[in-house]
Amino acid sequence: MDMKLEVIALPVSDVDRAKAFYRSIGFRQDLDFASGEGFRVVQFTPPGSEASIVFGDGITDRLAGSVQGLQLVVPDIEAARERLTERGVDVTEVFHDIGGVFYHQSPAYEIPGADPNGRDYASFARFNDPDGNGWVLQQVKARAPGR
């Protein structure tokens, strides 16, 4: 049976500010629906993604900014970083992780620059949305078999 990740709920403090941010970085708005007092759901999808994010009122009890480690896979991390920076997003410099397999949550493990061997899945950059929800860019030019 296939199972696909479809939606991730993000806790935000200001729905309209979050809408403006995600629109500004090129995510596609799919939905803005409200029904009654205290319920509103807004859905955005990153370019080329099959999974989306949702935020709004009455959809999660998590604290705004508490979601970390959301990954956006990009074929050219420098170009993606530049595009986000041009749109006013504070993106870290590209780094690779001291462990060489995945990134640690702490910047203490980050080695400046892209992976020196040019390996897929090994170069990263970070940014946050206005509430502090954390995103990670990960460079993948050729996906691993079966992915």
Mean pLDDT across residues: 93
CATH superfamily of the largest domain: 2,3-Dihydroxybiphenyl 1,2-Dioxygenase, domain 1
Rg from alpha-carbon coordinates? 16 Å
How many separate helices?
Answer: 2
Low-confidence stretches: none
Record the strand order, biggest sheet: 1-4-3-2
CATH topology of the largest domain: 2,3-Dihydroxybiphenyl 1,2-Dioxygenase, domain 1
The geometry reads as globular
Portion in helices:
10-25%
What's the end-to-end separation, in Å? 16 Å
Instruction: Return the CATH class of the largest domain.
Output: Alpha Beta
- SSE string, helices as H and strands as E: EHEEEEHEEEE
Q: Main sheet? A: 4 strands, mixed
Number of E strands: 9
Name the structural class: alpha/beta
β-strand amount: 25-35%
CATH-defined architecture of the largest domain: Roll
Number of domains: 2
Can you tag this structure with a few keywords?
147 residues, alpha/beta, 2,3-Dihydroxybiphenyl 1,2-Dioxygenase, domain 1, 2 domains, 4-stranded mixed sheet, 3-stranded mixed sheet, 2 helices, 14% helix
Compose a concise summary of this entry:
This protein has 147 residues and is an alpha/beta fold. Helices cover 14% and strands 30% of the residues.
Commentary on this structure:
The chain has 147 residues and is α/β, with parallel strands linked by helices. The chain folds into two domains: 7-57, 2,3-Dihydroxybiphenyl 1,2-Dioxygenase, domain 1; 70-139, 2,3-Dihydroxybiphenyl 1,2-Dioxygenase, domain 1, CATH 3.10.180. It is 14% helix and 30% strand. It has two helices and nine strands; from the N terminus they run βαββββαββββ. The strands form three sheets. Strands 1-4-3-2 form a four-stranded mixed β-sheet, covered by helices on one side. Strands 5-9-8 form a three-stranded mixed β-sheet, covered by helices on one side. A two-stranded antiparallel ribbon has the order 6-7. The radius of gyration is 16 Å and the shape is globular.
